[in-house]
Automatic annotation (TrEMBL):
<keyword id="KW-0378">Hydrolase</keyword>
<dbReference type="InterPro" id="IPR008969">
    <property type="entry name" value="CarboxyPept-like_regulatory"/>
</dbReference>
<feature type="signal peptide">
    <location>
        <begin position="1"/>
        <end position="19"/>
    </location>
</feature>
<keyword id="KW-0732">Signal</keyword>
<dbReference type="GO" id="GO:0004180">
    <property type="term" value="F:carboxypeptidase activity"/>
</dbReference>
<keyword id="KW-0121">Carboxypeptidase</keyword>
<dbReference type="Pfam" id="PF13715">
    <property type="entry name" value="CarbopepD_reg_2"/>
</dbReference>
<keyword id="KW-0645">Protease</keyword>
<protein>
    <submittedName>
        <fullName>Carboxypeptidase-like regulatory domain-containing protein</fullName>
    </submittedName>
</protein>
Amino acid sequence: MKRIMFGIIAVVFALTVTAKEKETKTGNDSDNTATVALSGTVYDSDSGELLVGVEVKIDGTDTKTYTDFDGNFSFENIKPGEYKLVANYISYKKSAETLHVDASKNQVNIKLENSN
């Protein structure tokens, strides 16, 4: 009986150690993936006025934010790649812009046209 119990404990211990090693390796791999912050400013295309409260969304995701009192927005921890940003604001035409984001290109200015 002691041998069976010892065998079961040894197997459980071995499986736990193996699972922990895989988890650690996976965690290290994800740490090597660089992310960037994507930021920008939204303003009126005619007057140049900074627009407050504009919804800016990364198309195809649930990720969205709103511009602050200076018309600025930002997204943190974005993986480099191609994204479509959609800006939507009352009384303005919706704007959609596709851009490639990486460490050297992570700023965008969005002009919204009045819908009148």
